[in-house]
# Entry
Amino acid sequence: MDRLDAFKHIAAQASRGDLAFPTNVNASIRLQEALSDPNCHVEAAAKLIQADPLLAARTVAIANSVAYNRSGTEISSVRSAVQRLGVRTLQSLVAALIVRQLGSKIVDPALQAMSAQLWEHTAHVAALAQVIARRVTHVDPDTALFTGIIHEVGAFYMLAQADAYPGIMQGEPEDWVEHGEVEIGRGVLRKLVVPEAVMQSVEAMWDGLRALPPENLGDTLLLANDLAPVPSPMHQRPGATTPAAARTLDFAVGDGTLDTILRESASDVQSLFAVLML
# Structure
């Protein structure tokens, strides 16, 4: 099977919902589904998080990050962390865990390097999206964080499958974008029960152009993607701005400017990024 046929084969499987996830990913997906239940409240969420030591540690860490600890009061219990963060932020942490678990199963060193770069890019985008949502577009910051974390999940799934198809990622990135990204991305996002608004925002990143100044969740994701200092090794959207060029963008936001907001929020971005990279 040549490269393009392999892309098409995996894409067809994803379109049918025939996705092959490792056991630990399936367990995390079940946790995500439980947190998505509107009847899942703080006490139940805390018990679910405590069952996973790694996730519990990350939950406490992000609750103590600059972005979520405005008072400067550190906490040490999962229950207190869940109360501070809320269930929706926990969904973002579980999504991050799912993405990292997909990358952890990769064996080929070249694919491992791509996965590591992709996660670094993802963490930057998620942290920037949360701040841009809060300070610029005024869309829900928790949704923006979640969208940033899962915006490349289809690419992570592809890398996790690539070990079984030697050489599939050795060609031009455009082959992945043209023959696999959309179908595989949609299939994985549906499996994760991603809300429609988030799905539409990720699809806008695949082929859309953002408005300036940014207005909605899709614009928030696109601007965060352009500003991320580490590019995705898998996706360069049409008309994308390089990080260096994106950081020269400046426009009025209320009484300030984008540049001012980015400088004022640098510690928030770095704190969130550091937690996601744990």
